[in-house]
Inverse folding.
């Protein structure tokens, strides 16, 4: 299959690895001043190479053309030094998609930037802020033979909100200020809020200063919606006040609640992938409005697995006050089974 | 020799014996009732352990019966059951099929080739396939068979083929097998007959399972089996139940019953060996088939499907289920390869047969048979050798045609068929367009190209006579021809092709013809050309489509464009058109109307006038259409996937804010912009809400537990329900009686919903029903599921899932449904496969089954497979590593070179040279990735009958990988050249320092068992190293290094291409030969290694050095052990040597006498000594005797004395006791 440009780079490589179809990506930043693959993409390819066996990767001299022939997912113990241009979340999102389909359970130690404003954060062993990084993440995942169909159509009501306000190499008071401001907004909705403050010191605080807030809303049916905001890296852009950050994050969570669904907007694609790779049964998931990334992902799923989702919109009722429109995604699984796992 | 009839035993009816018996009988009944009472001990628990064991065993047996519950995925209308009739040659296979067909359909089929599909009952169809005596066919058919009728010649007994087939079946999931014994009339003797039957039956049972059905066909009547027996067999087949097999439920497959070559005849003419495009037809089985998936055709190879479309069922089940049996019209038969079912298959033409009597009827009412024929006619167009007519269906105004004038054509141009046809066929037009443009340089060929283009144009043919000159002049040389014929009428379908475009748009079109990207750059507002992509819709709209959409407005979604002038076309015109081009001839025999469609040349046309006319107020209409769509819900699906199969249009101008919520621009449009965008999964909304405002905040109020709940989940309601359930109770302690508050509730409800009063009754009713349901659910949960096991829960879950699967897409249109689900099993599909080898078509033999096996994701790749393998116990020879072997794995048959290994205790995979005789071993091959757990079988050759049992091995796939772990033993030998104490220098093991460096620390051993370790490389000689040992080595010692060397598996994956062999030689495929075969064929004898030959053993005599004892040690030794200082005597000098004595005669005599005397003396002495010895012996004997006597005597005496002493002692003791007692 052939693609153009470096958009959805991870999706393409991940889906290619899962479906066994080879991929050729042309014109990667060919018109750019700095053409070709960036360091973080190269690092991502290297990570893929580490967790697979028999992968063939060809990149042309300028780095504008990539040919990727996937091997078999191997797993095992992997240690990877992630490039600091993107945070570990960038790499981890792809690993999350691949991890259940490995030969041996994955145990990956990723080192690099744990929190930055662009990518989703991860809970960590050591924190490391952009730009210098120095954080560490351990990710383990068991392997599965096949996926069960998913039925997530009833998100339920939010019963509590939890969160972590973290600060590294800044005053520990920052975290408290964040918590206060975030609570000031969220308290109007629900009293059960607990936001941990997490101030890391010494070796586990990475190399750069920064602070941020992660909020998770849990519903009675056990679905989670998350939101997070991280301060801008030191020396890049305007400095952020912790109060503003807390408020913004709380509003972001409310926005996420407004969108609703059983999966938050960041993880839509992951849930859709697991639906696709399920057995040949009908799976259903209720999502909020599809993010552009998810839409791209849906297109790629169609290209790689020939699976289309039935997309039904659910308009909110007149007297209901449950946020915006929802989308009910329905698909028949591809009947995918983990061909990497050994049987004895 | 009649036996004397023995007198039978007579039971007594009266007398004491009879009475006794009667009494017993009466008691017996009573006993049964109160046995437990009468003999309670017999029923009491004797041993708890024993009871536990019994219980355990009972549970075991119960659990063993459980199967893992699976989701029931059988389609509502299942595909026909594949019945494979198998057996050695001349056993009556064809006769049986003929009889079965006759039994079911009352039709006689003379020549059976290819699958025959018949309707056998109200709910069942059968596809009968004959399996010829070729292992390729046997393997392929065993993979697709649902039921195997295994014919056995009873007069001969079992043949190897039967057993081979059974083994093949076993490996690929066991289908139902029913044995049929034939040739039973050859037995003259009844007894031998029954004996043979019994013998065969029991042998059959051991192979299949105990109690497997074996059918007897006793004799033939006029060359056919007896009707009653065939009927019985048919009944058995009709009621047979089938179990799902793992491989088949996870892979789609099609047993092709029709094949058509779609290749352009011109390309064939130019290059008869060019790759062919072929469409294959058949019922889809197994599971959902996705468009553009990979398929494997066993015997040909792997191909990716260009297009799949579903056709109306040519052999449908009766629509209305009646109580009684089928009527004659419902007993359909479909066998295109055999030339039945309305079609006779010829090389480049298709004959449609139908009895003339039916013809008029069929016009009036559309019955299944008619549909069948019509569909076939419609699809038949594909076959044409002159054009890929599959994409073409003739289109004329249906209303204009009067059926009386030309009945056949009216059927052909059936509106419905036309429409379905058009919809079914999709193709990548872009590619074809490109091709066309390339080709179009030649003016001469233009006419043919027109035809091609017509073929490309899906679902639309404009039939008319054409002025060829006008064509040539009007056509621009590089572009497609546009003919200006204002008088002619347009005939449009909604296919979006440039062909339909007006001349005025030509300039635009030229640009459109190019890549869409260019178009983007040019900023052309929405002129894109694309055809509806097959199965998965294309992502763009077309201006033409917009136009069509306008039509849609009138025709309510269905494109039914009818031009006023269309009526002009009548059938005669069409016929003339045919005749002028000489492509159609019609023959009218008396009984049949036989239409021979030769490749019909279709003309295309562009009707500028018409096009312009209806494009006039395009923009206005478009905007209207857009408005209308805006009112409807924004179609998210279209946003995500582009155009849908439904003819819903979307204006290209207004993509920006569709749905208000979704700001997704279409992929092609903004591709340039977004191709290099940031790859991030976070979604930052453009218009975030202002959460400081109260009304915004209240919009999500209900998302929290603090908000309002739905009525059925509200805590208050739930409480109320609980009240109703458990409301009435009396508090025993206080004596208070609580009553359910019914009145209050009503009030509350009234308060809650005053506005719902309008349809209050209905609401109330619903509510009540809902409440009842919930109560029942709760009751069930409480009382039924008390003993629900995990197994029951699982089963229920599966059932729910199955129901959901069935319901989810039930009401969706098939066109759309196939896009979501894929083509579901039971559909009759047409699969178009490009780039098939030409031999597939030229050497086509309908007797050989063509199976299209769908492949799962990444099953088209190649890698290393680890499998567990066992040589078949009936195969006479063991298998050799690296000998090519033909494997049947998954759908595939291929030749590969396996390496056999065995797993050591430490998990090492050690290479074996041969397979073990009666044991499993591992095997690694380079082959197609196939899911683990898939069974396979191996044969050494597929051609000829060299082995008496051809199946060499069976096994199962264990693991897939991209690397191999097999090692073989490697023994390196070195020799010490310098020995220190425990250290020595060793050479000859390695050649370079580097090699040694790799083995530093490795353990070595000598022949005598001294262990050691490699320490470090020496500089000279290269490859020498220092090693230490646990003891001192000798120079004569040999040092071994035992290590493991990884072996590589030869990457041979050679699919068996038996279907490509010439007709009649399809069972002669020979792949790579084994080394043994090669040597045999080339007459090469093995030259053995000279060292391996046996030679007489010549042993050198070994010389040992003398023992050297150090001087110090010598001193310390005792004299006895001291080495004696025996100087070697030198030669006695001559003077010291004594001369020999020579005697005189006299002296001689004296000496002789002395000798004699001394010998006499010696003799005497000797004699005396012997005597003395004898005497002494005697003396000793006597002395011994005396001694013995003496001893005896002494003993006696001693005894006496002891006794006396003892008595004395006793007395003493007694007296002392007495004294003591006295004292007391």
């Amino acid at each position: 299959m052939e693609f153009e440009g470096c958009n959805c780079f991870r999706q393409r490589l991940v889906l290619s690895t899962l479906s066994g179809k080879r991929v050729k990506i042309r014109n990667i930043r060919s018109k750019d001043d700095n053409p070709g693959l960036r360091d973080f993409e190269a690092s991502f390819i290297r990570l893929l190479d580490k967790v697979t066996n028999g992968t063939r990767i060809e990149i042309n001299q300028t780095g504008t053309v990539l040919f990727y022939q996937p091997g078999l997912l191997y797993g095992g113990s992997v240690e990877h030094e992630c490039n600091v241009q993107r945070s570990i979340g960038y790499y981890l999102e792809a690993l999350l998609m691949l991890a259940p389909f490995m030969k041996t359970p994955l145990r990956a130690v990723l080192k690099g930037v744990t929190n930055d404003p662009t990518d989703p954060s991860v809970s960590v062993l050591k924190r490391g802020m952009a730009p210098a990084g120095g954080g560490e993440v351990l990710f383990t995942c068991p392997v599965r033979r096949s996926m069960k169909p998913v039925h997530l159509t009833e998100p339920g009501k939010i019963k509590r909100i939890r969160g972590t306000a973290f600060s590294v190499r800044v005053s520990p008071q920052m975290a408290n200020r964040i918590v206060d401001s975030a609570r000031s907004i969220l308290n109007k909705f629900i009293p059960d809020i607990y936001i941990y403050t997490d101030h890391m010191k010494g070796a586990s605080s990475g190399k750069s200063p920064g602070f941020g807030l992660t909020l998770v809303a849990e519903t009675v049916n056990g679905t989670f919606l998350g939101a997070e905001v991280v301060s801008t890296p030191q020396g890049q852009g305007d400095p952020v006040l912790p109060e503003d950050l807390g408020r913004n994050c709380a509003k972001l969570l409310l926005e996420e609640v407004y969108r609703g669904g059983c999966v938050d907007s960041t993880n839509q694609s992951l849930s859709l992938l697991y639906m696709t790779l399920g057995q040949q049964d009908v799976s259903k998931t209720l999502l909020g409005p599809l993010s552009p990334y998810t839409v791209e992902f849906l297109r790629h799923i169609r290209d790689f697995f020939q699976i289309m989702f039935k997309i039904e919109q659910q308009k909110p009722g007149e007297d209901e006050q449950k946020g915006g429109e929802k989308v009910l995604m329905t698909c028949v699984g591809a009947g995918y089974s983990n061909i990497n796992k050994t049987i004895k | 020799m009649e036996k004397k009839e023995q007198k039978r035993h007579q039971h007594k009816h009266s007398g004491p014996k009879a009475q006794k018996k009667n009494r017993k009988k009466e008691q017996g009944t009573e006993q049964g009732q109160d046995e437990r009472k009468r003999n309670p001990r017999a029923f009491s628990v004797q041993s708890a352990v024993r009871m536990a064991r019994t219980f355990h065993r009972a549970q075991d047996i119960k659990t063993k019966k459980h199967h893992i519950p699976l989701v029931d995925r059988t389609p509502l209308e299942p595909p026909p059951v594949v019945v494979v009739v198998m057996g050695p040659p001349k056993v009556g296979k064809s006769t049986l099929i003929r009889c079965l067909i006759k039994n079911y359909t009352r039709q006689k089929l003379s020549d059976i080739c290819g699958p025959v599909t018949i309707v056998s009952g109200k709910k069942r169809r059968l596809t009968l396939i004959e399996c010829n005596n070729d292992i390729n066919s046997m393997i392929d058919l065993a993979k697709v068979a649902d039921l195997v009728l295994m014919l056995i010649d009873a007069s001969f007994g079992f043949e190897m083929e039967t057993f081979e087939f059974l083994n093949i079946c076993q490996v690929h999931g066991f289908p139902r097998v029913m044995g049929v014994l034939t040739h039973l009339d050859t037995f003259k003797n009844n007894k031998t007959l029954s004996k043979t039957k019994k013998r065969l039956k029991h042998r059959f049972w051991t192979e299949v399972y105990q109690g497997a059905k074996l059918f007897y066909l006793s004799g033939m009547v006029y060359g056919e089996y007896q009707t009653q027996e065939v009927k019985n067999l048919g009944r058995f087949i009709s009621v047979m139940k089938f179990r799902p097999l793992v491989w088949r439920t996870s892979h789609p497959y099609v047993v092709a019953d029709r094949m058509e070559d779609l290749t352009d005849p011109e390309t064939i003419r130019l290059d008869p060996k060019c790759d062919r495009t072929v469409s294959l037809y058949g019922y889809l089985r197994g599971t959902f088939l996705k468009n553009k998936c990979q398929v494997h055709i066993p015997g040909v190879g792997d191909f990716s499907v260009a297009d799949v479309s579903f056709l109306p069922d040519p052999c449908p089940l009766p629509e209305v289920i009646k109580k009684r049996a089928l009527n004659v019209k419902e007993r359909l038969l479909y066998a295109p390869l055999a030339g039945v079912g309305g079609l006779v298959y010829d090389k480049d033409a298709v004959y449609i047969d139908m009895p003339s009597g039916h013809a008029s009827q069929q016009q009036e009412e559309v019955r299944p048979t008619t549909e069948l024929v019509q569909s076939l006619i419609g699809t038949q167009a594909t076959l044409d050798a002159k054009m890929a007519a599959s994409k073409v269906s003739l289109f004329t105004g249906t209303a204009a045609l009067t059926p009386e004038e030309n009945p056949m054509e009216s059927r052909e141009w059936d509106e419905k068929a036309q429409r379905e046809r058009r919809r079914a066929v999709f193709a990548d037009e872009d590619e074809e367009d490109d091709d066309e443009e390339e080709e179009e340089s030649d003016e001469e060929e233009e006419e043919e190209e027109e035809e091609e283009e017509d073929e490309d144009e899906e679902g639309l043919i404009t039939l008319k006579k054409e002025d060829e000159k006008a064509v040539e002049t009007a056509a621009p040389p590089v572009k497609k021809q546009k003919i200006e014929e204002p008088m002619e009428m347009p005939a449009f379908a909604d296919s979006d092709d440039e062909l339909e475009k007006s001349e005025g748009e030509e300039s635009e079109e030229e640009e459109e013809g190019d890549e869409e990207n260019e178009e983007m750059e040019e900023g052309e507002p929405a002129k894109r050309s694309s055809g509806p992509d097959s199965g998965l819709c294309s992502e763009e709209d077309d201006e033409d489509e917009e136009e069509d959409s306008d039509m849609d407005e009138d025709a309510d979604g269905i494109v039914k464009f009818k031009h006023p002038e269309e009526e002009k076309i009548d059938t005669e015109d069409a016929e003339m058109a045919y005749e002028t081009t000489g492509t159609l001839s019609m023959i009218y025999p008396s009984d049949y109307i036989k239409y021979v469609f030769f490749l019909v040349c279709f003309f295309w046309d562009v009707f500028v006038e018409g096009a312009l006319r209806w494009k006039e107020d395009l923009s206005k209409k478009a905007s209207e259409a857009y408005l209308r769509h805006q009112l409807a819900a924004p179609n998210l699906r279209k946003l995500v996937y582009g155009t849908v199969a439904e003819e819903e249009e979307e204006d290209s101008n207004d993509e920006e804010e569709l749905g208000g919520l979704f700001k997704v621009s279409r992929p092609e449009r903004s591709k340039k912009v977004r191709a290099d965008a940031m790859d991030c999964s976070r979604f930052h909304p453009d218009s975030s809400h202002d959460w400081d405002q109260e009304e915004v905040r209240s919009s999500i109020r209900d998302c929290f537990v603090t908000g309002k709940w739905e009525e059925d989940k509200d805590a208050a309601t739930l409480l109320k329900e609980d009240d109703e359930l458990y409301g009435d109770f009396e508090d025993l302690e206080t004596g208070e009686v609580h009553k359910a508050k019914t009145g209050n509730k009503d009030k509350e409800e009234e308060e809650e919903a005053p506005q719902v009063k309008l349809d209050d009754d209905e609401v109330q009713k619903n509510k009540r029903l809902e409440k009842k349901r919930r109560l029942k659910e709760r009751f069930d949960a409480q009382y039924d599921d008390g003993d629900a096991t995990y197994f029951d829960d699982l089963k229920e879950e599966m059932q729910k899932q199955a129901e959901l699967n069935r319901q989810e897409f039930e009401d969706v249109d098939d066109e759309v449904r196939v896009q979501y689900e894929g083509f579901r099993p039971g559909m009759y599909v047409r699969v178009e496969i490009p780039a098939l080898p030409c031999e597939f078509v030229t050497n086509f033999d309908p007797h050989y089954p063509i199976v299209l096996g769908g492949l799962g994701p990444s099953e088209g790749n190649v890698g290393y497979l680890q499998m567990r393998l066992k040589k078949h116990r009936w195969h006479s020879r063991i298998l050799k590593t690296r000998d090519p072997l033909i494997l049947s794995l998954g759908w595939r048959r291929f030749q590969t070179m396996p390496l056999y290994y065995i797993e050591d205790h430490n998990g090492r995979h050690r290479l074996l040279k041969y397979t073990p005789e009666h044991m499993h071993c591992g095997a690694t091959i380079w082959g197609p990735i196939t899911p683990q757990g898939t069974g396979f079988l191996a044969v050494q050759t597929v051609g000829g009958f060299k082995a008496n049992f051809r199946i060499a091995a069976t096994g199962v796939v264990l693991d897939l990988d991209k690397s191999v772990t097999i090692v073989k033993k490697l023994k390196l030998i070195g020799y010490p050249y310098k020995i220190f104490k425990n250290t020595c220098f060793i050479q000859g093991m390695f050649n370079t320092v580097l090699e040694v460096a790799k083995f530093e620390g490795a353990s070595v051993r000598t022949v005598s068992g001294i262990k050691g370790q490699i320490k470090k490389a020496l500089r000279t000689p290269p490859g020498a190293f220092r090693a230490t040992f646990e003891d001192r080595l000798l120079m004569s010692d040999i040092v071994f290094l035992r290590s493991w060397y990884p072996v590589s598996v030869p990457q041979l994956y050679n699919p068996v291409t038996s279907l490509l062999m010439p007709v009649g030689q399809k069972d002669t495929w020979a792949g790579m030969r084994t080394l043994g075969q090669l040597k045999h064929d080339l007459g090469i004898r093995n030259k053995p290694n000279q060292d391996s030959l046996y030679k007489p053993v010549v042993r050198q005599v070994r010389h040992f050095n003398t023992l050297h004892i150090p001087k110090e040690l010598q001193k310390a030794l005792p004299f006895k052990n001291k080495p004696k200082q025996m100087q070697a005597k030198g030669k006695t000098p001559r003077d010291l040597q004594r001369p020999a004595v020579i005697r005189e005669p006299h002296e001689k005599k004296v000496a002789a006498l002395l000798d004699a005397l001394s010998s006499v003396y010696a003799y005497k002495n000797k004699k005396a000594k012997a005597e003395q010895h004898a005497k002494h012996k005697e003396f000793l004997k006597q002395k011994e005797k005396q001694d013995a006597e003496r001893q005896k005597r002494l003993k006696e005496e001693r005894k006496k004395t002891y006794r006396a002493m003892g008595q004395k002692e006793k007395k003493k003791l007694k007296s002392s006791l007495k004294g003591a007692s006295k004292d007391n």
